[in-house]
Amino acid sequence: MRQAASKFLFNYWNDLRKGRATPVGEHIDPIALNPHIGAIFMLRREEGGAFIMALAGRHCDALAGAPLRGVAFRTLWDEQQARDVEKVCYGVAESLLPVVIGATANPSGYAPASLEIMLLPLRPTSTRDGMILGSMALQPGVEWLGLRPSQPFRLISHRFLALEPIKNEHSTHANLKPQHEPRKIMHYPSQKLRTRGHLAIYEGGQALNHHKIGG
């Protein structure tokens, strides 16, 4: 994880777990998310299987150049990669594992900027299944954000993080261990596993595999 919003949201989500696989969506406190609320969004899975933006912060809306609430998450992505992104969402919802996505975003005529997206599963309930808490953050210093909408995002890499239950409910970091990527998720030909501290990193794609953890 490179971006501050990703680190913040992961630690908040992790503290809410309190030894469970995932936290309950109803326990999320918007006030606690205030430091990065603009970069935070929430997905819900529709009966037909599509993941819809249930909520989106103003920075997320600024990336798209329009309000994202009610918009299908896959429509934000390059048309040829939209199905792959939806498979990643299925993997998060079904395996209850968080994922970090590396991508690029840019308006027409601008150089691609690094975009980091965190997807964190929420515990299914009888009324809401497949809810995902997320954040999207561009690299610092992007001049066009809020002035021009990005073209569809380009997927570069995705990294699932395997979790063990937290033994100390006050811990701010989970015990993470390597684990095979969930079934039904696409596999990049160059995919490989690296470990960095308490993170298990599953990489693929091209340009963003140099992301550093915690820096």
Q: Please, what is the CATH homologous superfamily?
A: PAS domain
Question: If you compute it from the alpha carbons, what radius of gyration comes out, rounded to the nearest whole angstrom?
Answer: 16 Å
Mean pLDDT: 78
Total domains: 1
CATH class: Alpha Beta
The largest beta-sheet arranges its strands as: 2-1-5-4-3-6
- Taking the alpha carbons of the first and last residues, their distance comes to 8 Å
How much of the sequence lies in strands comes to 25-35%
If classified by CATH, what would the architecture be?
Answer: 2-Layer Sandwich
Low-confidence stretches: 166-215
- Assembly type: single chain
Write down how many β-strands occur, each being a DSSP E stretch of 2 or more residues.
10
**In DSSP terms, counting alpha (H) and pi (I) runs of 4 or more, how many helices?**
3
The structural class is alpha+beta
Task: Estimate the global geometry from the Cα principal axes.
Answer: globular
Helix coverage percent = 10-25%
CATH topology: Beta-Lactamase
- What is the H-and-E element order? HEEHHEEEEEEEE
List keywords for this structure.
single chain; about 220 residues; alpha+beta; Beta-Lactamase; 6-stranded antiparallel β-sheet; two-stranded antiparallel sheet; about 15% helix; about 25% strand; globular; disordered C terminus
Please explain how this structure is put together:
- With 215 residues, the chain is α+β, with helices and mostly antiparallel strands.
- The protein has one domain: Beta-Lactamase.
- Helix content is 16%, strand content 26%.
- The protein has three helices and ten strands, in the order αββααββββββββ.
- The strands form three sheets. The protein has a six-stranded antiparallel beta sheet, sandwiched between helices.
- It starts with a helix and ends in a 12-residue tail after the last strand.
